[in-house]
Amino acid sequence: MRIKLSSIHVDDQDKALAFYTEVLGFQKKHDLPVGGGFRWLTLVAPDGHDDVELVLEPNANPAARAYQDALLEQGIPITAFEVDDVAAEHERLRQRGVVFTKPPTAAGPVTIAIFADTCGNLIQIYQPPG
Amino acid sequence: MVTPTRLAAVCRARDRLRELGPSAPSVRALATDAGLTTTGFIRIFAAVLGETPHQYRIRSRLEHAKRLLAEGELSVTEICFSLGFSSLGSFSHQFGQRVGVSPSAYRRRLRRQLGTPGVPPRALTPGCLELMAVALGGPGTSPG
């Protein structure tokens, strides 16, 4: 078995595609209609392996939306991406209008920051030690 | 930076913007509840959720409209007014702008796709892997 997919729910697939590609620098991989106005929408990250895809799922399922809402209200990020330099990434994203709920902060051996992805989620970025 | 208090205020406002019907709260009232000026509230809401409170409310209503159109029991006019749109014209216009087709055309297209009138909403809430199978064209599947 291999892990090739990581998925997050988004409140609007168009809005999510714009934010993740234009602001975060992900590249679109698949964008295929599947009926009901939904798409199978996947991206690959700007750095790292290009065969691991991030799936941007619609949150039409009430269970998905309830989960997403609860995490946002509690300030809990839905996923985390590794970066080389969290301070630089924080500054770059801030310049692009991204709003953070936590600035670069030491958390044990890593440094983390948390921002809103404009699609109903908080995303954590972390810089590994060393 | 968005503090936990401000984030909670944005989430509370969002819950209220999901309310349907004509007596839903105004953006100004939501700003007051959040302890912010209207401009400040709109700015922070848009920074967190990627659209203004007004845009969020419209999108929320239109998504509800899509579910009601799929269920097939209410007429387009009944759906329009139950969701708090001021007129059939404004509902059709906003729906068409964001969805790409009129409400009636959307309903007809769904029926063709799903083959069953009054299809329950569950059929429109696909799970991740079902979507992938349909998109990537497995046997016995049909893309939208």
What does this entry look like structurally?
In chain A, 25% of the residues lie in helices and 41% in strands. Chain A has 3 helices and 8 strands, in the order βαβββαβαβββ. Chain A has helices at residues 13-23, 62-73, 86-95; strands at 5-10, 27-35, 38-44, 53-58, 79-82, 100-107, 110-116, 122-127. The relative contact order of chain A is 0.20. With 144 residues, chain B is mainly alpha-helical. Chain B folds into 2 domains: 1-50; 54-144, Homeodomain-like (Arc Repressor Mutant, subunit A, Orthogonal Bundle), CATH 1.10.10.60. Chain A binds chain B through residues 5, 7, 11-12, 15, 19, 30, 32-40, 55, 57-58, 60-62, 69, 72-73, 75, 97-101, 103, 116, 118-120, and chain B through 1-4, 7-8, 11, 15, 44, 47-51, 59, 63, 66, 70, 99, 110, 113-114, 124-128, 131-132, 134-136, 142-144.
Helix and strand sequence of chain A: EHEEEHEHEEE
Order of helices and strands of chain B: HHHHHHHH
Share of helical residues of chain A: 25-40%
Q: Please mark out the parts of chain B with pLDDT under 50 across 5 or more consecutive residues, or reply none.
A: 119-124, 138-144
Q: By helix and strand content of chain B, what is the structural category?
A: mainly alpha
| CATH T-level fold name of chain A | 2,3-Dihydroxybiphenyl 1,2-Dioxygenase, domain 1
Number of helices, counting only DSSP H or I runs of 4 residues or more of chain A: 3
Shape of chain B: elongated
Uncertain parts of chain A = none
Major β-sheet profile of chain A:
4 strands, mixed
Count the E strands of chain A. 8
Q: What is the CATH level 1 assignment of chain A? A: Alpha Beta
- What percent strand of chain B? under 5%
Largest sheet of chain B: none
* Residue-averaged pLDDT of chain B: 82
The overall pLDDT average of chain A reads: 94
Count of separate structural domains of chain A? 1
> Which class of secondary structure composition applies to the elements of chain A?
alpha/beta
